[in-house]
Amino acid sequence: LLLSRSFSAAGHTLLVYDYLLTFRDEFVYIWDAPWTIVKALFLFNRYGNLIGQTVIRLEEAGLLAHSSQKFCQGFAVFTTCFMFLSTESIHILVLVRAWAIWGTRKRVTNILAWSYVGYVVTMLASSAYSVRAGDGESLHSVFILFVKMVALL
User: What parts of the sequence cross the membrane (predicted)?
Assistant: First the structure.
C-alpha cells in the first residue's frame, strides 16, 4: 500500500510539473486565441483532469478518506463520471479534428456523430452496470450526476 501511494504521489508530482513547464506556452498560444469549441475542450480536458486527478490522489493519500459507505459510493460515482468525462473530452477533440480533415460534409458528420452516440450509450450502460449497488441507489446517482455535469457544459 505504501509503494502504491508513493508511485501515485510521484506520478501526480510529474503531472503538476508538466503543467508548470508548459503553462507559459499555453498562455501565449491558447489563452490569447479566440474562443472555439476546440479551445474550450482543450482547457476542460487540461484543467478538469488536473483537478479530478488531484481529488483522487487526496483520497488515495487518506486526506479525503471517510469510513462511511455513503462516502465510498459517492466517491465511486465521482470517479466513474470523472473518468468518463475526461476520456470523452479527448475523444471529442479527435472527432472534431477528423471532421475537419475529412471535410465537413453532411455524410461525414452523420457517420461521426452516430458512431460516437453508439459508443457513448455503450459506455454509459457499462459504467452504470459496474457501479450499481444492491439497492439500485448508486445506479440512479450515476445518471443524476452525469446529467448535472452535462447540463453544466
Answer: 75-99, 111-131
